[in-house]
C-alpha cells in the first residue's frame, strides 16, 4: 500500500508513526525540528489521513506497510518513532527486522495486550453520529461531538480529521468502519522470541496508564537496551501536552537539539 507522507530535511532517515485517529499533521512541528539533522518522514497509516482505506487493519498489515514504505524510499537503518498504535507498529517491526533499525522511540505504549478502552469506542460513536447532511462547519461538528466527548482537547484532536471532499461538504478522513471492526486488534500484544538489541527510548505520560511499573519487565525483556522516562503531568497525548519536555528527551536520545521555545 502506497502511503501518503510528509517529508522534511536531509540526513539519516527517521520515520514517525501516529496513533489511532491521528495523522501525519499531528507530528509536523516535531518533524520540522528534527529535520535540522534527519531526513524525516511522517506517513499517514492506512485508514487514516490521506492514505488508502482497507478492510484489513491489524499489526501484521501495519508492519508490512512500514516495511514497504522503507523499501520504497530505499532507506538504510532508519530511526523509528511511534506514538500509541504507531508505537506498537515500530516495536513489532524492530523485533522482526532488528538489523534494519538503528534505534527506536516509543511514546506512551507498552508491548503488552490492553483491555478495550472506552474512550476509543466513544470517539468512534461520536464521529459516526455526526450527520454531515445537517452540519457544514467545524464549529457545528464540535457542538455535535460535545454531546459525547466532554474533553476539549480530545475534541480538537478528533476535529483534525475533518476535511472537505467538496466545497460545501464535510467528511471524516479515517475509515471509521474498518477501525471499529478491528479495534480489538489494536489492543493486541507485541511479542517475539528474540529481543531488539538496539538503543530504545520509552516515554510515558505521567497521567497516563499506558506504561506502568508492571510493564517494565516485559519492556526490558524485549528491549534490553532501553530507557524508560516519564513526563510528569502529561496524558497519553504526550506530544500535545508536553512538547518541550518530549523534545528534550528526543534531544538526549538522538543527540539533536530540539526546543520549541526557540522555534
Could you walk me through the main structural features you see in this protein, from its secondary elements to its overall organization?
The protein has 263 residues and is an alpha/beta fold. It has two domains: 5-115 and 189-262, Rossmann fold, CATH 3.40.50.1820; 118-181, no CATH class. It has helices at 28-34, 59-72, 85-96, 118-129, 138-146, 152-159, 176-181, 183-186, 216-222, 238-241, 243-254; strands at 5-8, 12-17, 38-43, 79-83, 103-107, 162-166, 169-172, 200-205, 226-231. The strands form two sheets. The protein has a seven-stranded mixed sheet with strand order 1-3-2-4-5-8-9, sandwiched between helices. A two-stranded antiparallel ribbon has the order 6-7. Strand 2, helix 1 and strand 3 (38-43) form a beta-alpha-beta unit. The chain is globular.
What secondary-structure arrangement, pairings included, does this model have?
Elements: E1 5-8, E2 12-17, H1 28-34, E3 38-43, H2 59-72, E4 79-83, H3 85-96, E5 103-107, H4 118-129, H5 138-146, H6 152-159, E6 162-166, E7 169-172, H7 176-181, H8 183-186, E8 200-205, H9 216-222, E9 226-231, H10 238-241, H11 243-254
User: How would you sum up the major sheet?
Assistant: 7 strands, mixed
Shape-level CATH architecture of the largest domain: 3-Layer(aba) Sandwich
Say what the CATH topology of the largest domain is. Answer: Rossmann fold
Number of domains: 2
Alpha-carbon Rg, integer: 18 Å
Shape: globular
Uncertain residue ranges: none
| Mean pLDDT figure | 94
- N-to-C series of helices and strands: EEHEHEHEHHHEEHHEHEHH
